[in-house]
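Much of what follows relies on a compact textual record of a protein's fold. Think of the row as the fold of the chain written in a discrete alphabet. An example makes this concrete, so a full record is given next.


***
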Amino acid sequence: MLRLLLLCLLLLFRAQRSSACPHLCSCHGSRVDCSSTSLTTSSLPNSFPAGTTELLLHNNLLTSLPNGLLDHLTSLSSVSLHANPWVCDCGVLYLRAWLLRQPPSLTSHLGVNCSSPPNLRGRLVVYLTEEELLESCHYWYCDLALASQVCLLVFVVGQAALLVALVVFLKRFERLTKEAKRTTEESFTAGEGHRSNEYSALMDSSI
């Protein structure tokens, strides 16, 4: 019985969270207004109320939309996304795919223009081809690959330098060990010779 009660409370809590108005937004019935709030892609709400029919996201600082953000809003009849600096690279693929899935009556694609890169500036996101977007992503992948190769080269050079330093240290240690051993042997030999001379002198004096 206690488990059933906890499960009901959890479901009620989730339902309240899903219907709560997102931070920085204002809600009037099923209308969620998040426009002109300087929202960025990273500061966007994680979700919107499930029954949202009108969503206003225009006049912000959005460069892309997180994957799956709008998929659960099946009751949407109006979305405004214009006046945002959309970056048309790999990150805008979800927005483009979502716009393509919408019925012609939902004019959310209007004003959704690329702000960058320069060769795509002003283009409507919904009319971009995947080839154009993937081509713009190649630069990012190339930069990442170049950075990875540079890091690998630095790592290899560092390891080689450590290996050389270790070999030099071992050779120097070996040389010092040999010198110390030779010095010890010479000292021992000199000591034995000195004691032998003293013994001979004692024998001669006793005779």
